[in-house]
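TL;DR need structure tokens for one chain.
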Amino acid sequence: MESMIPAFSRILILTPILSLILFCQDAWALQTHGGSEGVVVHQLAHIQYLGALGYLLWDIRRSGFAGVGWLYLQRFCWLMMIWNGIAFVGHFAQMALPDGAISTEDGYLSALLLLPVSFGHWIYYVTALDHLVITPALFFLFLAMRSFSRAAASDKVEGGR
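>> reply
TL;DR here they are.
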């Protein structure tokens, strides 16, 4: 009877994983904001996140934390604040585009910006490249967390001696 429990728990754990692998479909994990209230709340969230990152950056610098992890975390904050500004402007630029300015015939992920190109089109296009800022920001967050983890592990080892 005891040997059946581990086998049963393996089956119990593997069933949902296999189900996800075998029966997965498109996730469509993009959210659109219906009506003006959705955009307003989303834009306010960008402002709040920008303020929170600014406070975190100010607090790190004020506290004078030493170590490379804190430097990486500051870089993360700066890049995410820049990304928030880009995304904020980009959402307004997207709302200002005329109807039919973006072709989504082949689906949302293969959207095309149609001619004629105006200044508003260029602003939208440039701000749509926000992943060029957020990707390094998240990498700096990873480096910071890894640095903090390694420092905590080395403190634990030194404390155990």
